[in-house]
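[recover] target loaded
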């Protein structure tokens, strides 16, 4: 957020991060569409309306413009979210993630998107020996109660393929596969599996397999590496990416070194290094 202080929306470092975001989103689109799958972007965050942040204020217009330029179908759910009462759809003041009602609301917003592409089929399949053990990053067969250090216990169940869903994904496919890639707004901490949006969507679409590969603090860099390593082998027909303005600044090198799922070292560009030294190493 500090990157956006003092007219930071026009700063060299934010401009570079926006370009990095655009490049990664374009690459992810190309790779998904190469399999014949439909690629859809959704802008989802509760940081709108009275809770709007600069990450949202500056990030969302850029994301929509980028999607338009790249020919990506995009849905900005911000206006619908802003029209809701935060205390009803999130767990404030304890936490800003979805409440049960919020997950129901989110599922209702996503339902027509899924319905629109109900007939879409990808063209790529994989042999059993090609598939990795997991498609998501959760430990296979996880069934545990977490609280995120907030005394807000919730049950996390992962299937045999490391996705946050109760049933395993089976092959050869007999149903349409829809893969959700996203951060915590898709993963949905502080809700049991049965109450998260993707589980509710699974009930609405019994002839579709709804796969949740959401991850805490995930951004485009993580979605790309997950797709390349294993998510593509789930043979999705539709890939729905959840993103928001936070994903742009999450690409700053220090954030990547702390949170990237790849765990590889990220070295600063010249622009990032100059910004970092000016702000933190005077």
């Amino acid at each position: 957020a500090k990157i956006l202080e003092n007219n930071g929306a026009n700063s060299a470092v934010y401009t570079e991060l926006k370009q990095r975001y655009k490049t990664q989103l374009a690459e992810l689109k190309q790779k998904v569409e190469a399999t014949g799958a439909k690629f859809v972007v959704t802008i989802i965050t509760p940081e709108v309306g009275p809770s709007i942040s600069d990450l949202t204020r500056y990030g969302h217009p850029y994301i929509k413009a980028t999607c338009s330029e790249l020919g990506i179908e995009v849905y900005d759910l911000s206006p619908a979210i802003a029209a809701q009462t935060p205390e009803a759809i999130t767990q404030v003041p304890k936490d800003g993630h979805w409440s049960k009602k919020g997950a129901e609301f989110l599922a209702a917003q996503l339902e027509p998107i899924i319905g629109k592409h109900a007939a879409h089929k990808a063209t790529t399949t994989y042999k059993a020996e090609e598939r990795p053990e997991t498609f998501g990053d959760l430990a296979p067969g996880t069934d545990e109660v977490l609280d995120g250090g907030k005394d807000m216990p919730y049950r996390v169940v992962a299937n045999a393929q490391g996705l946050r869903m109760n049933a395993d994904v089976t092959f050869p496919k007999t149903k349409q596969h829809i893969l959700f890639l996203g951060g915590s707004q898709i993963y949905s901490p502080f809700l049991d599996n049965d109450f998260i949006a993707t589980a509710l969507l699974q009930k609405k679409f019994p002839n579709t397999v709804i796969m949740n590969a959401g991850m805490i603090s995930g951004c485009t860099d993580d979605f790309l590496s997950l797709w390349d390593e294993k998510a593509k082998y789930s043979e999705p027909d539709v890939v729905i990416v959840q993103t928001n303005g936070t994903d742009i600044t999450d690409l700053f090198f220090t954030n990547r070194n702390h949170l990237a799922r790849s765990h590889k070292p990220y070295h600063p560009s010249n622009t990032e290094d100059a910004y970092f030294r000016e702000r933190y190493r005077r």
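[recover] notes: The longest strand covers residues 38-43.
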